[in-house]
Amino acid sequence: MSTDIPITGFIVHSEDGDLEHTHKLYITSWNGRPLHVHQFAGTTSYNVGHSHDYSATTAPALSSVPHTHEYFATTTFDAGHSHVIKGTTGPAIPIPGGGHIHRFEGITTVNGSTPHTHSYKGQTGNEIAYA
């Protein structure tokens, strides 16, 4: 016996495939529960004479369920290069007045004329309905 779970979302054509036509599926609700995202921003550590800023929005996750979010951002172009940050947030942390945030931290990709990384850490903003 199968159980149907209603989902809503949309499909976008993607050029990510090797030689095949591909699509990406973006789910906006799962079993009647809306998904949400978080905005995040910050500045990396100061290494090799500079730092980088970053800002982006996390990948969606279900609301009101123990969860984490994937995140990805490209830093600002400083000292002739940029870096990528990506990872998974920590679990949801409730905030007064409702909603929640997530903490995140990591090390950027290696780049620059003197190859190096930067560390970063911060917390997301409150949840935003994803639609």
TrEMBL record:
It comes from the Bacteria. Residues 110-131 are annotated as: Disordered. InterPro entries: YmaF (IPR024307). This is YmaF family protein. It comes from Paenibacillus albiflavus.
